[in-house]
Design brief:
alpha+beta; Alpha-Beta Plaits; 6 strands; disordered C terminus; transmembrane; membrane; GGDEF_dom; EC 2.7.7.65
């Protein structure tokens, strides 16, 4: 059974060759293991599309009152117009007031608000229309109100959502449709209702598939954008974004946050004596070695050339020092002439160094790294006093 599931999972990955790694397929099901940079970019994109969708509804919702005025009795039109005005104001507030802060729960709240407004309008208008006996064109326009859930579920296609997220968003709409059928149990045309509900499920499925395909494409693009193409470490730009994210989170939670600035010793000699290809091999071997021994949750950033930054959220200065010494003991790889690759390291921590922003934290670590160079290389410095941990 397990082998069969694994086979189907592998075949699913083959449907998207070159887009996702096999380990990233699980990201299409749940956002639990998404990279923080991916989550942040996705949150911004979701909120922007929520605002776009809300703008469209804010414009179209009151315009339809013209049609209602032509075909409905004045009393019904006035009540529907009042509901449309309230919905329009709610959509406009969503467009004007809501902004993304890069947090995924903030994006979830935006989607919930976007879908709650028309859902409430659908329930209220549907209830109101049941009190009127409509015929002819009025009955046809009134029946059109029943198509609002189809529009909402179709709109899911513009959001890069996981399978679980799509299910959570679509479920309230499907439940409302089922409840409305239950309330009209006695006079229900069950074949028509069953067909409409089945169509809703199909639309939800297609919209969910479209959202998952968007997410897969986004994962591939983000992976390419945030990674250094040679070493696979985070690029400098994405590293600065991570620094800002971790530093802000640590400041809010009054938690420690350490960074280690690593500069490979005498690396220029490798390029000068053996060529840049050997230098590239040494860099990829070093980052691969670090990747195998880094703690889960730490991030390696290629800051430039042979300089790297190790980000260690939730880590005190002493814990960071222990982690770096463990990495040094495991080694950074081998130089082309056979000797070990060594590094000069400077460590800084947000609380103990009283850093007010991440740039200041990086400057402190950078300064200590240069002191490690001046003191003989292949050592770690984690304080401003002239003391060092020799190899």
């Amino acid at each position: 059974m397990i082998s069969t599931l694994a086979l189907h999972w592998h075949r699913l990955g083959g449907l998207m060759p070159g887009e996702l790694d096999e380990g990233e397929l699980a990201w299409l099901v749940s956002p639990h293991r998404h990279l923080s940079l991916l989550a942040r970019r996705r949150a911004v994109l979701i909120v922007n599309r929520v605002r776009l969708f809300a703008f469209l509804f804010a414009v179209l919702t009151p315009l339809w009152s013209i049609v209602d005025f032509v075909v409905f009795p004045f009393q019904l039109w006035s009540e529907l117009a009042l509901m449309r005005f309230a919905a329009c104001v709610a959509f406009a507030c969503l467009v004007v007031c809501y902004r993304s802060n890069g947090d995924l729960f903030n994006a979830y709240r935006a989607i919930a608000l976007l879908f709650a407004i028309p859902t409430v309008f659908y329930v209220a208008s549907h209830t109101l229309l049941t009190f009127y006996q409509l015929s002819g064109i009025s009955a046809a326009i009134g029946a059109g109100y029943a198509f609002l859930p189809f529009v909402l579920l179709g709109g899911l296609a513009i959001f890069p959502l996981t399978l679980i997220e799509t299910f959570v968003v679509a479920s309230p709409i499907l439940i409302c449709q089922a409840v409305s059928g239950y309330l009209r149990w006695a006079a229900m045309d069950w074949p028509s209702f069953a067909g409409a509900f089945w169509l809703l499920l199909l639309i939800a499925g297609v919209a969910g598939l479209a959202g998952i395909c968007q997410l897969a494409f986004m994962i591939a693009l983000v992976r390419q954008a945030i990674r250094d193409p040679l070493t696979g470490a985070f690029s400098r730009n994405s590293g600065m974004e991570l620094l800002d994210l971790h530093f802000t989170n640590a400041a809010r939670a009054h938690a420690p946050f350490s960074v280690a600035f690593l500069d490979l010793d005498r690396f220029k000699n490798i390029n000068d004596e053996f060529g840049h290809e050997e230098g590239d091999r040494a860099l990829t071997a070093m980052t691969s070695q670090l990747g195998h021994h880094m703690r889960h949750g730490d991030s390696l950033v290629r800051w430039g050339g042979e300089e790297f930054m190790l980000l260690m959220p939730g880590t005190s200065l002493m814990q960071a020092q222990v982690a770096i010494e463990r990495l040094r003991a495991a080694g950074f790889g081998t130089r082309p002439e056979g000797g070990p690759i060594t590094a000069s390291v400077g460590i800084a921590e947000r609380k103990s160094d009283r850093a007010r922003e991440w740039k200041e934290l990086v400057e402190i670590a950078d300064r200590r790294m240069y002191r490690a160079k001046e003191n003989g290389r292949d050592r770690v410095i984690c304080e401003d006093q002239p003391t060092a941990l020799s190899a």
